[in-house]
Structures are given as C-alpha cells and as structure tokens.
C-alpha cells in the first residue's frame, strides 16, 4: 500500500497533534506509539514526517552497537594502519527523527544506548585506544504492540510522549477509512488538494516553532502541573517538566502566548499514561474485595480453629493409648483429605494470601557454560553469543562470510608471513583473505523463569500460596543483578491466565502477586497449554532465550479442555513441552499421608523435567530445586 498523505489519515487527529507537539518542541525528546497490528502506527510516522518535510532516519530494530555508534572502517584500517570510524545511525540522525518500528523487540543494549541518546545528547566512543565524540541530538520515535513484549518502565519513561492508536470498531469509521484509501489510489486530482492541506500543516508547525520561545508559563500553571503529576502517581519529576514543555508546544500550535489549564489537561493524556503507577488502584480493588466479602476473615478464622481441633493434642497424649493415637491420626488424615476435596470442588470462597516478606532467597549462580550461540543478555549463565556484544574470548577462522571481524587477531595471523610476502606501495601490513579472523564472544545470559502455579483451592492449605508468592518476589530482587526475566501463569476454575508477563520490575510484580487469589477447580492442562503458547510467542521474538518452566501442583486436575480425561490431557501437554526442549521442574505439593497418588511425578516424567516432592512448601526449598535443575 502506498504512503498516504498526512491529511488523509482520518480518525487520527489527536495522534497527529501529538506528533506536531514533538516537531515544535525538541525538548520533549521523543514518542512511543502504541497500538495493535495494522492500526497504522508506521503509516502515521512516515506520513507525518513526509507531510511536514521532517528529515527521518529509520533504524533497524536489531541494530547493533557498531551500527548505532559507528564501526571501524575495515578497508582504511588495513591499508593505512589507522583507525577511521564510520558514521553511525545516531550521528546520521543528528537534528532529525530517528524512527524504530517495533522498538519493544530491540535488545536491552540497543535500548540503553537510545535512551542515553535522548537524555545526554553526547557520546564519547572509545575503542582500541581511539576516541571520538558525537552529538546525536535526536528525536526518537518508536512503535510498540502492547500485546507483545513490553519495555521496562525505566526505558519507556525516557519517551516524552505516549501516543495510543486504538483499533477502529465502529462500522462508519472503518468504511470512511476504506473510502479514503480508495480515493488516494484512484484519483490523482484529489492528491493535489491534500498537498495544499499538507502545506498548511507544515507552515503551522514552522510558525509554532518560532513562537515557542515566547510562550509564557504562569506560576499557577507550574503548581497545576505538579498537582496533576502527583494525582497520577508518577514517580520522579520528569512528568512535571514534560507537562510544561508539551503545554508550551500546544499553546504555540494554537497561536497563544501563554499556557492554560486546557493545555495542561490536554497534553496530560500524552505525557502521563506510561508513567503512572497502579499501586493505588490495586489497593483500592483489594479493599473493595474485602468490603464486599466481610465474612472471609471470619470463615478463615473458623477454618483455622477447625484445623487446630482436628490436630491431636500431643501434650495430653497417653503413651499407653497407642490405638487411640492411631485412630486420631487416621481421623485427622481423613478430615484433611475431605477438606481438600471440598476446596478442590470450589465449595469454599476464594482467598487472597499476601506475600511472605520474611523469605529471603540466595542468588542463583549457574556454573555451567552454554555452548549454543544465543542473543540474550544477563548474568546467570555463560553463553556464546551471536550478536556483536560481549567479551571476546578468542578468535577463529570465519565460517564463510566474515561476521565479526577481529582486526588485531587478523594482523597477528598475518605478521609471521610479512617477510615472505611481496611489499606493496603504501601498505605497511600485507593481509590476505586467509588471515581474516572472526571474534568469538561470550557473555552471561539471563534465564526466562516461568512459574506455572496451581491457584486452585487446594493451594490455600497450610499457606502454600503465600510461600509461592514469597519465592517469586524474592527471586525478582535477584533478577535485577542476574538480569533474569520472571513470569507467572496461574490456573484455576476453568482457565489459565498470564498474570505477570516476563519482567524484572519488582514494583509491577509485587502489586500483581499481592492480588493473586486462590480458589476453585484445577485446570492443569490449561496451565500447561498456556505456558506452551506463551513461550512459543516469546521464542518467536527471541529465538535463543533460555526458558525454564517451574510447575507447582499436586497433579490432581479435574478440568479438561477437550473430550479427553483431565489427567490424560495434562500428560499430553507435558509431552509437548518436552518435545520443544523446554527445561522444566515440577514441585509436587501433595501432602504426606497414607494415600498418595503421585500424579505430579507422572507429569514431571511426561515433561522430561526435574521432580521434587515437598511436604511443606517453603520458598527456600523451591530455589534449592531450581539451582539443581536450571
């Protein structure tokens, strides 16, 4: 499809205004455009840049450090013996827009460089004793699909504006969009009319840019900006500053010399959405849940009292009454099994346990070396990497095309043969193709730990869910240092949900875990199927990650998604995970007793994974198991 002219982008008036603010005031830094596939994110950026004749440089989503900062000129380096740095994308985009489509798929190293380019405006490149200063001065614009992998809050906060494009669900709007596209393709005369409107946009933005420096900011508007940021629960002070800068651009755009409350309220929809924290919302929902279920606490207290009554009182046990003691134990076991059966059938109300903050997990450190070349970054396991990052450990003869040229190793390989090679004018070192060497790099890669947790009623017994939450939360604290990504899938009733996508954000994880309820039936196969689909989606974007599934269940499934029996279906999905070569560990939460089914062990065998049986589920024991099997 051809690129539509700017005025032809119907139904995007707010989005076009946001980009206009960006073109008027470069202090806004950049924008992240969020929307589902096919909603016109890329079309919007390219059409707008073309419409106002804004220079734009497009950056590949998988651009490496050499492409961004500039690589050593290979030919000049060999012929002259001097380092000559080529112009990188950041230097080429100075004073322009740098556009990255699907920026959320870029690796963390690239995103880190780009965030520095927005804020610092300067890079000092030092390589092999060579130093160069570049001044990117870029306006970064990226597009992102919210249904796919998200960027960290620290990185997304660097974008000045958040522009959302929603899918058109109204019939009239979709029909109008189709008509515009057809008109553009078939009627050349209409394109001239759009050209006139495009010139109006260009002139309006140019005039607003000139007026920007004269726009006044009353003290009352400074106070209002601070109040708006506080009400939105935005961390830091960047939101306050950007609210003022965006309001100034909007005032200049509408030919005013002073910002107003209307300007601040309007630009808040662009400045604040990606900075707001949802802690107050979670607390409010949790409080509402408590208020709506005032009997939950009483029910729990009664349940605890009943459990204590069922336990034999060892202080008054008579050693001679051995038969009575055995009968008491049998009664207790039967009562606990009956109680757990009632919970599994969903006859009691669900409960939300908190996070056991007393649990402290020691960091996981893997000593193994992963020989498969991977693209991830982290500190968990040493891995050979394909990308041109990481520490060089050795050099090798290239296998075909030279991918990561090692200058010094090439010169070193050619050095012994210089005395037998004929001298050439203006060439100090004669290098032949057989001298070329490729770098072999190695770095620590993070593990993607996927917790698949049974959140049915059976997990309410003996604070099992509370211990699981404590383990995951404590692991996240270590993930900051190890660069691990942790995700959580919970299954209960008749479904499985990704309640925590892969993240290293403690803040996001804590609020999610605190509000995870437990109760209802056990759809084990749904949990395994969801983990399989989710990991396939993640691996499609990052083919060489290190995934690891930790399944916590007793295996007593009672919900099926097909005509198969629930347990047979669970075994089937377990085998599918094994066929995908996904490492796994099953932690059996079945209680000790005379009657044990051993279902979780059969699931572990089907998954070709590790197996641990824990009579009392504790977070530290979970991490000990993971250390042995990751």
Write up what this structure looks like.
Helix 1 crosses helix 9 and helix 17 packs antiparallel against helix 18. A six-stranded mixed β-sheet has the order 14-13-12-15-16-17, sandwiched between helices. The chain has four domains: 166 residues, P-loop containing nucleotide triphosphate hydrolases (Rossmann fold); 65 residues, Magnesium chelatase subunit I, C-Terminal domain (Helicase, Ruva Protein, domain 3); 63 residues, no CATH class; 185 residues, Rossmann fold. Strand 15, helix 20 and strand 16 form a beta-alpha-beta unit. 44% of the residues lie in helices and 16% in strands. It has 630 residues and is an alpha/beta fold.
Supply the CATH class of the largest domain.
Alpha Beta
Low-confidence stretches: 279-338, 340-348, 356-371, 373-385
Shape category? globular
CATH superfamily caption of the largest domain:
von Willebrand factor, type A domain
- What is the architecture of the largest domain at the second tier of CATH? 3-Layer(aba) Sandwich
* CATH topological fold name of the largest domain: Rossmann fold
Q: Going across the biggest sheet, name each strand in turn.
A: 14-13-12-15-16-17
Average pLDDT across residues? 74
For the record, give the distance between the C-alpha atoms at the N and C termini, rounded to a whole number.
47 Å
Q: Measured on Cα atoms, how large is the radius of gyration?
A: 30 Å
Helix content: 40-55%
Q: What's the number of domains?
A: 4
- Beta-strand share of residues: 15-25%
Question: Would you report the number of β strands?
Answer: 17
């Amino acid at each position: 499809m051809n690129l539509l002219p700017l005025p032809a982008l119907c139904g995007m008036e707010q989005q076009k205004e946001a980009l206009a603010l960006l073109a008027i005031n470069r202090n806004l830094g950049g924008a992240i455009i969020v929307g589902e596939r096919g909603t016109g994110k890329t079309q919007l950026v390219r059409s707008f840049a073309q419409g106002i004749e804004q220079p734009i440089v497009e950056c590949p989503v998988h651009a490496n450090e050499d492409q961004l900062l500039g690589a050593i000129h290979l030919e000049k380096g060999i012929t002259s013996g001097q380092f000559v740095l080529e112009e990188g994308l950041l230097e080429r985009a100075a004073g322009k827009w740098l556009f990255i489509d699907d920026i959320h798929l870029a690796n963390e190293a690239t995103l880190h460089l780009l965030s520095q380019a927005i804020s610092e405006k300067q890079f000092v490149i030092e390589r092999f004793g060579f130093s160069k200063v570049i001044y990117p001065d870029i306006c970064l614009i990226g597009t992102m699909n919210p249904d796919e992998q998200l960027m960290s809050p620290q990185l997304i906060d660097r974008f000045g504006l958040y522009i959302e494009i929603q899918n058109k669900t109204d019939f009239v709007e979709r029909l109008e969009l189709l008509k515009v596209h057809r008109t553009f393709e078939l009627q050349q005369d209409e394109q001239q009319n759009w050209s006139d409107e495009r010139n109006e946009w260009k002139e309006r933005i140019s005039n607003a840019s000139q007026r920007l420096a004269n726009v006044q900011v009353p003290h009352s508007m400074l106070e209002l900006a601070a109040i708006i940021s506080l009400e939105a629960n935005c961390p830091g002070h960047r939101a306050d500053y950007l609210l003022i800068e965006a309001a100034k651009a909007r005032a200049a755009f509408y030919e005013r010399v002073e910002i107003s409350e209307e300007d601040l309220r309007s630009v808040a929809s662009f400045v604040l959405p990606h900075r707001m924290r949802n802690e107050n919302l979670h607390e409010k929902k949790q409080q509402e849940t408590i208020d709506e279920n005032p009997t939950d606490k009483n029910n729990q207290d009664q349940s605890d009292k009943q459990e204590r009554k069922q336990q034999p009182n060892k202080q008054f046990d008579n050693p001679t009454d051995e038969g009575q003691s055995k009968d008491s134990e049998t009664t207790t076991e039967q009562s606990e099994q009956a109680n757990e059966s009632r919970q599994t059938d969903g006859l009691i109300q669900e409960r939300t346990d908190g996070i056991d903050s007393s649990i402290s997990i020691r960091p996981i450190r893997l000593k193994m070396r992963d020989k498969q070349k991977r693209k991830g970054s982290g500190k968990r396991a040493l891995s050979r990497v394909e990308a041109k990052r990481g520490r060089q450990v050795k050099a090798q003869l290239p296998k075909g095309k030279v991918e990561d040229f090692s200058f010094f190793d090439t010169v070193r390989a050619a050095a012994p043969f210089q005395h037998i090679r004929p001298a050439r004018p203006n060439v100090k070192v004669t290098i032949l193709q057989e001298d070329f060497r490729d770098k072999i790099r190695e770095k620590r890669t993070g593990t993607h730990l996927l917790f698949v947790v049974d959140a049915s009623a059976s997990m309410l017994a003996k604070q099992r869910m509370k211990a699981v939450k404590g383990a995951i939360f404590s692991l996240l604290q270590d993930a900051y240092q190890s660069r691990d990504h942790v995700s959580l899938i919970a299954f209960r009733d008749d479904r499985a949900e990704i309640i925590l996508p892969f993240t290293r954000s403690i803040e996001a994880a804590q609020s999610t875990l605190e509000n995870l309820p437990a109760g209802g039936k056990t759809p084990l196969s749904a949990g395994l199927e969801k983990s399989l689909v989710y990991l396939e989606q993640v691996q499609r974007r990052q083919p060489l990650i290190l995934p690891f599934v930790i399944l916590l269940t007793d295996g007593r499934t009672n919900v099926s998604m097909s005509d198969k029996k629930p347990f047979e279906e669970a075994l089937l999905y377990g085998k599918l995970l094994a066929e995908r070569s996904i490492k796994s560990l099953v932690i059996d939460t079945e209680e000790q007793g005379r009657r044990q089914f051993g279902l979780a062990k059969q699931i572990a065998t089907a998954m070709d994974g590790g197996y641990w049986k824990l009579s009392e589920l504790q977070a530290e024991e979970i991490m000990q198991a993971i250390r042995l099997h990751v």
